[in-house]
Design a protein that fits this description.
Structural class: mainly beta
Distance between the termini: 34 Å
Strand content: over 45%
Radius of gyration: 18 Å
Largest sheet: 8 strands, antiparallel, barrel
Shape: elongated
């Protein structure tokens, strides 16, 4: 928890410093993404989705608030499991052209796993309690805007979740980005 508070304090300090700079002409953005994540420890490969709201303080600095969802089967079973994440991610944006951007980000937040009772042969076998752990993410992406406000987003992300055992999926996402 101390690490999370330190990370959030650093993000907040960087955001306040960036407020003194001139904002972009369309500072707000919203992304909706879907993708596929690889196998990691006890969670097999599966689908994932994310949505985020961001504010672009300057042409190069943006702060995103990301909500993510990871789904996969528990290894060697047919039982599905899922994890929710919430991250705050400072983002560096580089404008290649007026329609194309590349970006990189590092974020910190929490991952939450809901309680489940796993059934084997019709009988409850294992009950896993809910747990929330700190999490971090890093990634790179590309935005192509078809209009000044609507575009396509491609992103690759590495996420670390401090469960026991830890989960470290890498995923690829595609989505929609809207600026206003």
């Amino acid at each position: 928890m101390k690490k999370l508070m330190l990370a959030l304090t650093m993000v907040l300090a960087g955001g306040v410093a960036a407020l003194a700079q001139t904002p972009a002409s369309t500072p707000w953005s919203w992304q909706l993404q879907a993708g596929y994540n690889n196998s990691s420890k006890w969670l097999d490969s599966g689908w994932n989705g994310a949505t985020s709201i961001g504010y672009q303080f300057t042409d190069a600095f943006k702060l995103n608030f990301d909500l993510g969802y990871f789904e996969g089967k528990i290894k060697d079973t047919n039982v599905k499991d899922n994890i929710w994440t919430f991250m705050i991610a400072p983002t560096y944006v580089y404008n290649v052209t007026s329609n194309d951007q590349v970006y990189g980000f590092i974020g910190a937040g929490v991952a939450d796993r809901s309680s489940k009772t796993y059934v084997m042969n019709g009988f409850p076998a294992v009950r896993v309690p809910s747990e929330s752990k700190w999490a971090a993410e890093a990634g790179v992406g590309y935005n192509h805007f078809f209009t000044p406000k609507v575009g396509l987003n491609l992103q690759a992300t590495y996420t670390h979740m401090a469960f026991d055992p830890k989960i470290d999926p890498v995923d690829a996402r595609v989505g929609l980005i809207v600026r206003w």
